[in-house]
Amino acid sequence: MQRPKGTIDIYGEYYKKLNYIKRIFDDLCDEYNIGYIETPIFESSEVFHRGVGEGTDIVTKETYDFKDRGDRDITLRPEGTAGIVRSVLENKMYTTLPLKLCYFGKMYRYERPQSGRLREFYQAGVEIFGDNSPLMDVNAISFMVKFYERIGLKGIKVKINSIGKAEDRNNYMAALREYFKPYIDDLCEDCKARYEKNTLRILDCKTDADKDCIKNAPKIGEYLSEESKEYLNKVLDGLKSLGIEYVIDDTLVRGLDYYNDTVFEVVFNESSALGGGGRYDTLTSTLGGPELPAVGFAIGVNRVIQILDEEDIKVIDDGSIDAYILPVSENENNYAIELMSSLRDNAFKVDMDFTGKKMPAKFKEADRYNAKFVIIIGEDEVKSNKLTVRDNLTKEETKIERDNLIDFLDVNI
Ligand code: HAM
């Protein structure tokens, strides 16, 4: 038996990295005053189909749609935003605004499995409702930039663009249809369908991306209203005042239908995006609620881990434990387990063997766990309450009174 294509088993080093990323993300959410939300992994299909957009690649090709046993149309979440909007509306969370929410969880897209593209993957995201200031967009982008900095990733690039309001986009799409008319036969089958249904999506086609007719297509910037241009300039001014470097990418339109005005992505070495987001002021009304301005983003956690590996960036949590307790014989086991418990109460990471391994095997185990200290407990130690503490790197041994052990570890770890 094998796991399904495009999925991974998470354990060992990978789990540590995932956890490390989650801790950095959670800390930033606290610092940015953002509360946590967890919505179901599956929702009624219409939440994502309507939310993300019927004409998008995600909905036409990538959603996991199925009927449940009650004959309901269900979709595994391909992203977090639409489900969170459903929850904000259903629970009437919008009575006190602004509302700032974050999430960390698994998403599902039936994509062709390849490097950086999984069918089950983690996103860490933020959604902020009820604030239409360009500075809130800046706030969101600054969170992402700080996140990658804290992870230790240097050299990320923030790409930003404006896709204007619905009216600007309709004018733009009319221009795109005119432009692509002579090239229809050169486009892939999907793009031929997009030409009719959602012309904008031709621009983020993965098959046709390198074709000249796509590269030379008119840019949305030419179709923006004065209001949207001014909004973008205010966002750029805010980024400048924070010293955040960016590039304006006039080809960036994003693959989800709900955006307006600001859209952004973070890339590393021109590889696929490590995260992306934007403003979406009409999604709450698309999903049947009052119109609420909103901005958010999601970080692709698995892609971040992949880059950490490729760049050989070590996470700070090296997975070591503080001490490995080594009773010499079974007679000292109860003393050892009680000592382990009291060290854990003092927030030390400690472990010991219960299976009666021989001494050499126990020392090996201490190495396998990267223990900083090995605490050896024999008959004499129990009688005298003086423990033999061995520095597992230098192999230097010290006798420490049991009552002084915590102070000793505090000073030396
Ligand atoms: P997205 O650009 O579709 O946006 O996804 C965000 C990030 O998730 C991507 O930049 C990428 O790093 C990661 N990602 C996407 N698909 C995969 C995959 N198949 N395998 C691994 N990683 C993947 C959204 O999902 C929006 N909901 C973001 C947002 C929040 N906009 C406003 N609020």
Question: Average pLDDT across residues?
Answer: 94
Q: Can you identify the CATH superfamily of the largest domain? A: Bira Bifunctional Protein, Domain 2
Helix content: 25-40%
Rg over CA atoms, rounded to whole Å, is 27 Å
Write out key terms for the chains shown.
BirA Bifunctional Protein, domain 2, Rossmann fold, binds histidyl-adenosine monophosphate, 413 residues, alpha+beta, 38% helix, 5-stranded mixed beta sheet, 8-stranded mixed beta sheet
What can be said about this structure in brief?
This protein has helices at 12-31, 45-52, 57-62, 81-90, 134-151, 166-180, 189-197, 212-215, 226-241, 283-286, 301-310, 333-345, 359-368, 379-384, 405-412, and strands at residues 35-36, 42-44, 65-67, 73-76, 99-108, 120-129, 156-162, 247-248, 260-268, 275-279, 294-300, 323-327, 350-352, 373-377, 386-391, 397-401.
